[in-house]
Every structure is written in structure tokens, then in C-alpha cells.
Design a protein that fits this description.
Elements (H helix, E strand, L loop, with lengths): L2 H14 L6 H7 L1 H17 L3 H15 L2 E2 L4 E2 L4 E2 L6 E2 L4 E2 L4 E2 L4 E3 L11 E2 L4 E2 L4 E3 L3 E2 L4 E2 L4 E2 L8 E3 L4 E3 L25 H37 L3
Parallel strand pairs: 1-4, 2-5, 3-6, 4-7, 5-8, 6-9, 7-10, 8-11, 9-12, 10-13, 12-14
Antiparallel strand pairs: 14-15
Amino acid sequence: MSRMFLREMIEAYRQRDPAARSDLEVLLCYPGLHAVLIHRVAHRLWHGRTRLLGRLVSNFGRWATGIEIHPGATIGRRCIIDHGMGVVIGETAELGDDVYLYHQVTLGGTSSEQGKRHPTVANGVIIGAGAKVLGAILIGENARIGANAVVVAEVPANTTVVGIPARPVDRGNAARPPKPRFDPYGTPCDPCHDPLLHEIEMLRGEMNDLERRVADREVARPALEPSLRDTEPR
């Protein structure tokens, strides 16, 4: 285990978590850090053809931290797993650098076939608590996945998605594109434009207008009926 790797992991936690008061506290009390360190051992054993031993070490990490990372998964540098309980990362998942995961995140597969079946998460991605990212899909750089979202399609870089199934929300425009930033739980707390909600509001407005026009016609109809009777041939 390289000292540089451990140092930059601790610094990453200190930078992102205001509750981290010292290096020693992070080293001793953060299960996300413990899970990643144990995974590095399991991953090396897995690729050293001692796969059963790798699974045993991985299972110990799951028991000790509540975080399940398959030894075959690939995890980049400065990966932070915040709180961590209930996180599941599948065998063929690939995580880039500076990825931030919250508790109960699942990077799962949608196929029982061999081969690539879990997500690829690019650098700088934040995945909110309870989110499920399923299948051999790509989550682009600096993407944000909101809490409890279910993602089954690729997410472009610098895009924020929310909901079930996950859909993008607009947090910028052509003149002012969104800038990568830290979003707690991957969920936008600032005002943002949801295209789906916008369409729903437009349909609601059109329906209200149609109902008003029908009601106006119903009110005017009794006044028109006598004049219509006067014009009928005798």
C-alpha cells in the first residue's frame, strides 16, 4: 500500500467533508476509506489468480464496513464513499478518479451473461444516496446523479439527472454552461429547469384553457337556442 495513495485519500476526505477534523480521525473512523483500502488488497489478489482469496478478503471488507465491492471492480484515485452503508459495486464496474459515492448506491448489472455488464463512471462524478446505476453504460465526466435516481441509459458529461427513470435537468444555457462543482448527494438544490415538468405545465395550461372555452360555450348556448328556434322553417 503506497504512502502517497493513503495520503491523497485522507486529504480528499478532509477537503470534501467538514466533519473530518484530523487525519487520524479519517484514518480510523471512515468506513469508505477502509473499504477502498481493503478492495485494493482484494483486487490485487483477484488479478494475481488467487481469486478465492480475493473474494474472501472482499467479503471481510463487506462484513467490516457494510460496503460491498467486488474484487474485480476497478476504482481510480481519490474515490470517496461517504457514509457508505449499503453501497454495492459490481465485478465489471469501472470508476475513474475523484468519484464521490453516497450510501446505498448500486452500480449493478442488467445481464447474467459474462463480460462487461456494469457501469463505467468517469472522473469527477457524484452519485447521490440510494441511486441505482444499472448496465454497461457510461456516466460522463463531472456528471451528477440525484439521490434515489434510477439510471439505465448513458449520461453525458457535465449533465445532472434526477428521477425514475433518470432524466436530465437544465442547469445552464448556451451563454452560461454549467460549471463542475460539488453537489451534496448529487442533487441540485438551486433552481433548475426540468424539461419534462415544463411540458407537463404546458399541457396543463392548454387543458385549462380548453375547459374554460367549453364552459363559456355552455353558458352562451341557452341564450342562443331561442334565436335558433325563431329561424327554423315553419
